[in-house]
Design goal:
The protein is an all-alpha fold. It is 87% helix and 0% strand. The protein has two domains: 1-38; 40-111. The protein has helices at residues 2-38, 41-70, 73-98, 103-106. The protein is elongated and about 90 Å long.
Length: 111
């Protein structure tokens, strides 16, 4: 009888420990969801671009090379111009995310 009480006590401790771990996990997930919900759109965009901008730039360069090699010369200039515009925009966005000051800010603003 004493052995069964020990086993029951041990099993209840295991269950209590698992319940405590699950409760902490739920609390952590809840906190993570709160943090995600409190982020602004610009923070989310910065986080997304910091991960995927390299892929986007590589993809644009591949499109540029493809357009130069396989498209007709009449269309190549406009396609390459659009791709260059997208790459320049992504570079500007990444520069603003990193926090590099613009030329205007370096020279003292509107003075």
């Amino acid at each position: 009888m004493a052995d069964q009480n020990k086993n029951d006590l041990e099993e209840s401790r295991i269950v209590d420990t698992r319940a405590a771990v699950l409760l902490k996990e739920v609390e952590a997930r809840s906190r993570m969801m709160e943090l995600q919900a409190s982020k602004s759109a610009s923070d989310r965009a910065a986080e997304h671009l910091s991960v995927w901008a390299g892929l986007y730039m590589t993809l644009m360069v591949c499109f540029f090379i493809f357009s130069c090699l396989f498209l007709e010369p009449e269309v190549t200039a406009s396609v390459c111009g659009l791709i260059t515009l997208v790459v320049s925009s992504l570079s500007g966005i990444m520069r603003s995310i990193v926090g590099e000051p613009s030329a205007r800010e370096k020279n003292g603003g509107d003075k």
